[in-house]
Design a protein that fits this description.
Length: 305
């Protein structure tokens, strides 16, 4: 049985894409496979599962030596099970920059394309066989694309991502604006989560100037709800950093509708990063970054000290 999984702290793409590809392996390639997750899905991803009646995949902590797996939506060992290089990785499907460090036992299929979403790549790889997919699989694909593109607002969006999403929505009889509004409402409802969970909910590990960073992003249509918790979030950062083996936590609150981000600035290090990375002037414990929407395209590549 092949395990298909994405990155830790699974967002919508890392929840939906394993489900899509496991369906394809089982139903088209006739190869036994199952989707699994490396943590609890975020609120939007959990909404996707409920909305379309999809069973939540099993959550795993690690993989066994020799276990067959397919990696989607990442190629970074820091975001994968600790024993990933002991497993038998069969394939990688991703849309991020190459991180390096994954070892395989044999040559494998690797598909990495500069698109906004892993599910868009899967749409192309599956091809005409997608016509056989049940409604829930097509809906998962649409949801992943709308999530990763922030309903086409993100600068990572390509014309192809948009065309695929519009085709899927037409097939499903879905209004994209109405459906995206439901998605983003689910994404924005974080009332049940404590500060530690919010700082880890959508985060990536990154090294900058010899420091290990946890770069966290919270995308929302209600940024003030999170900003009202600013003091508690900043107070939780040192504990989260220490527990996760990081030096600092950077938290960007992305305002989906106004297409901007607010970076919390708890100390002089983050202030320096904000000023050097985004040509910003920091005068308090937050800084507004107009036009900043994408961690992959606008935040990570810009980080400097």
């Amino acid at each position: 049985m092949i395990k298909v999984f994405g990155h830790k702290a699974p967002d919508t793409d890392s929840t939906g894409s394993p489900i899509i590809w496991a369906w394809y392996l089982n139903e088209v390639r006739k190869t036994p496979a199952k989707p699994v997750l490396l943590g609890e899905p975020n609120t939007e991803a959990a909404w996707l599962l409920t909305r379309w009646g999809i069973e939540k995949p099993e959550i795993i902590a690690d993989v066994a030596a020799g276990e067959k797996c397919v990696i989607v939506d990442t190629n970074n060992p820091a975001e994968l099970p600790a024993s990933i290089n002991d497993a038998d990785v069969l394939e990688i499907i991703d849309h991020h920059m190459l991180a390096g460090g994954i070892k395989t036992r044999t040559p494998i299929n690797i598909t990495v394309r500069p698109l906004a979403c892993t599910a868009t790549i899967m749409h192309d790889l599956i091809g005409d066989d997608l016509a056989r997919a049940p409604e829930a699989i097509k809906a998962a694909m649409l949801t992943c694309i709308l999530s990763d593109t922030l309903e086409f607002r993100s600068p990572t969006t390509t014309a192809h991502d948009k065309a695929v999403a519009e085709k899927l929505a037409a097939d499903l009889g879905i209004s994209i604006p109405d459906y995206a509004a439901e998605m983003f409402a689910a994404k924005s409802d974080v009332s049940a989560f404590g500060e530690d969970a919010l700082l880890r909910m959508d985060s990536k590990e990154y090294e900058l100037g010899g420091k290990q960073l946890r770069v966290s992003v919270l995308e929302t249509t209600a940024p003030q709800v999170l900003l009202d918790r600013k003091d508690a979030l900043m107070a939780a950062m040192p504990g989260v950093a220490k527990a996760d083996g990081a030096d600092e936590v950077l938290l960007f609150i992305v305002d989906i509708l106004n297409e901007q981000a607010t970076l919390l600035v708890p100390n002089d290090f983050v202030k320096t990063v904000a000023e050097k990375s985004f040509n910003a002037t920091v005068t308090g414990d937050t800084v507004l970054l107009p036009g900043i929407m994408s961690r992959k395209k606008q935040i990570i590549p810009a980080l400097a000290v």
